[in-house]
Design goal:
2 copies of one chain form a homodimer. The first copy, chain A, has 226 residues and is α/β, with parallel strands linked by helices. The first copy, chain A, has helices spanning 12-24, 35-45, 61-71, 86-95, 107-121, 155-166, 174-182, 191-204, and strands spanning 4-8, 28-32, 49-53, 77-82, 99-103, 129-132, 135-138, 143-146, 149-151, 171-172, 214-217, 221-224. In chain A, the strands form 3 sheets. Chain A has a 5-stranded parallel sheet, sandwiched between helices. Mean pLDDT of chain A is 81; it is low at 123-127. The A-B interface holds A 20, 23-24, 29-33, 37, 41, 45, 169-171, 217-220, 223 and B 86-87, 90, 93-94, 120, 123-124, 138, 140-142, 154-156. Chain A binds a DNA duplex (30 and 30 nucleotides) through helix 6 and helix 8.
Chain lengths: 226, 226
Amino acid sequence: MAEKLLLIEDDPSILRGLQMNLGLEGFQLIAAHDGEEGIEFARSQKPDLIVLDMMLPKIGGIEVIRTLRQVDHDTPIVVLSAKDQESDKVLALSLGADDYVTKPFSVAELVARIRAALRRRRIHQASAQLTFGRITLDLEGRRLLSDGVELESTAREFDLLHHFFQHPGTVFSREQLMQTVWGADHFGTPRTVDNFIARLRSKIETDPDHPHHIETVRGVGYRFNP
Amino acid sequence: MAEKLLLIEDDPSILRGLQMNLGLEGFQLIAAHDGEEGIEFARSQKPDLIVLDMMLPKIGGIEVIRTLRQVDHDTPIVVLSAKDQESDKVLALSLGADDYVTKPFSVAELVARIRAALRRRRIHQASAQLTFGRITLDLEGRRLLSDGVELESTAREFDLLHHFFQHPGTVFSREQLMQTVWGADHFGTPRTVDNFIARLRSKIETDPDHPHHIETVRGVGYRFNP
DNA sequence: GGGGCGATGACAGCGCGGTGACAATCGGGT
DNA sequence: ACCCGATTGTCACCGCGCTGTCATCGCCCC
């Protein structure tokens, strides 16, 4: 366990957010602040996966991927980039990046992609499913199943429920959920969380008026019960 | 409460500054003047967090981190260093330091990072439960359990009992409880405390008329007995 | 027996969460 | 490029239950 990730990210605030969130996810982290450092650490530290921001001072992200892939074809690379850089995306993937997340991104999505990339690379046979009660999350297909039959769920709904499934029994404030599911750089009212909770309840709860799985903790936030 | 910090700092003037400022923040302080002393005190004194200056005589900061992490992977380490030592920074973090502050630093920033590191560790700790007798507080789920079955409890009730659990056997005046549980900026009558004590007693005491856990100390306040 | 302190039940205010409607945004298809 | 539907996010209003205060009663200690 305890996969070692190399984060190549020059923006200190995003870096801190990543370190905190990915740290909580149980990853061991190494941080590089520009492309040069990134290449150096990729060689010296042998990370299990590299998270690379395309917007870098000095050497650009494309150049970093090219250099890395000259000596190492195996370590998965997950790329972060602004959403309008479509050309970068294609180029990065063709150079050997494994996956691509556009900013602003939710930590849940990033984590999902990191885990997926790690899983793909290893022959790690862990079940790509999380099940509590009659509800199952198919992580690979990003599908929500109840008793094996699919329930329609949107991206946010899935991410939110995924986060709850990863931390059953723990209370989260609306602010915490905003941070981890919507992303550290997202700004919005806490009320939005309520709405998605309501939508999830209407789908997964047997009796949405008396929810069992997603419980309200008054004055604090919400808790997921298995 | 009163977290114990170990300061490893050879410069006497910086050390004095840290002692004064961090002392005022309510931390308990231990000072080591070089790396050897630091390692020794880290082992003997079991501090809650270590503040480490990278510029040290004899053994360097990197070496100190490496040595500390061989036996102890948990105690957070916050590193101080001159701002141009970028490589040290990354190396320190990859060796297991938790956070990094560059000199010249503001005390406010250092304090913020210390508190963040302490909080992160507390969250990360597995056993988020406090148990006395048949009563258990599940801190992650914010649940109050008696013999393992959940008792309904409101936010305030939980916070108040949580405070008692953290200081068993200590008498608190109503004013102190108001300050710590309700918050320093809260204004209200001391009678409110009585009410919440009564509500807690009715829930957790076997015989609420002759309370055992939450004892009245006439003329003073209340005390929690395990 | 008296004074003072704590216990407790009642109650009013309001803060908090639930929810439906709507606006903004995204994305896919033609 | 345009349109249309789905998704996402915000707002406002409603209703409930927590919270805090008061008044009264009881009890302990002097």
